[in-house]
Amino acid sequence: MKKKSVPDSYECPACGYRSAKWMGFCPSCQEAPEGLVPVVSASSRLESLLSEGDGTPRALRMEDVGKVAVERTSSGFREFDRVLGGGFVRGSFILLGGDPGVGKSTLALQAVAHMADGHKVLYAAGEESPEQVRMRYDRLGRKGGDLFILPETDLEAIVREVKRLSPEFLVVDSIQTVTMGADGPSSGSVGLLRESASVLLELAKRASVTVLIVGHVTKEGVIAGPRVLEHLVDTVLYLEGDRSHPVRLLRTVKNRFGPTRELGIFEMSPDGLREVENASSFFLEGRKERLSGSVVVSSLEGTRPLLVELQSLVSPTTFPNPRRVAQGVPVSRLSILAAVLERRAGLSLSSRDIYVNVAGGVSLEETASDLGLVLSLAGSLKDISLSPDVVVFGEVGLGGEVRRVQEMESRLTEARRHGFSHAVLPASGKKYPDVSGLSLHPVREVGEALELLKKLGSMKA
Hints:
ATP binds at residues 98-105. This protein is of the alpha/beta class.
């Protein structure tokens, strides 16, 4: 027999006021026209749940669960497919976020326009009219296809259209514009975002529709405020880039169907976004040789090794507190490495301004760029220009030691493929990868790296 849960107290749904007895109104906020609602404690609820049920087992042994092949559809971009783990998974729920104007709608429209050649796609445009979407569609050079435009923000109308049309792909642009009837929460509110995302998630799983929602990033750098959507979706993608720079970086933050931290690189053009096939050559293009403070580092973005130029400028300061300015490198990491150079290598940096920039707008979050930053700072301070055919990578600890990083072979192979002849890397007891035509210069501490800087800086490429 089912045991009824007994309320421990009563609560106002508007302000949270609690009372031991039921009341027909809230004495605190004068709201709750239907009275206070019962609140059952966790222990009482648990006791009630344990007394229910017929004992029929519902859990499955892992060996009894059948294997299902993951069905993927290409987006038409190899870079987009890379961050997705191989393409769109049928019935998945994807969130594409980024700053306003960075190109989220353009990327989404380009992808679904390609898929519309063999699949039915519904594009729910909440921020643009059908004519505006058509103008962008024509500018992208697309024609035909089974692509339908729905100028609607009401979620109920969108779901009804999905039921009528039975598309394989649904795009909601953007989730901040979605409403749920006249009596629902205001557009863009946290409650509405969570509720509408839950409905779209259930739609994706029940109808096997791949749902892509576009979300704007707030001033705090998160999607829709306090990350209320990221735990609901299967995949979270961020599109990054400066409006004054054509480069756009698509990063995977979460992916239930593939690896995370993957990076896709695009270039904005009048015809839309174009994928950058050879990323290392793209970021090294226009590099000035024999420039003090310039070092090429090998960074690993997901599973992809990437060669980028790291530039430093160290100059005397005219301020009481020296400036530390960094673009593409965390300022906290810059301050740590500057302190390591001063304490462990005896370089005077505390009375100098330091400016660091990563060419191409790339952000180096990986600590494997530490050694390159150290040599860049020292080269700028001592006015030593490193040979242009040298690549550097390695993590630097507070004691000045240079530590081993992962995927050394792939980093060295990428460097050799782009014509580099020398690699400064961490010393290791393990056998080094054998890359033909590449001379390895292992170092154990910062002091050895600075001596190597003088040696390689005097070499001719």
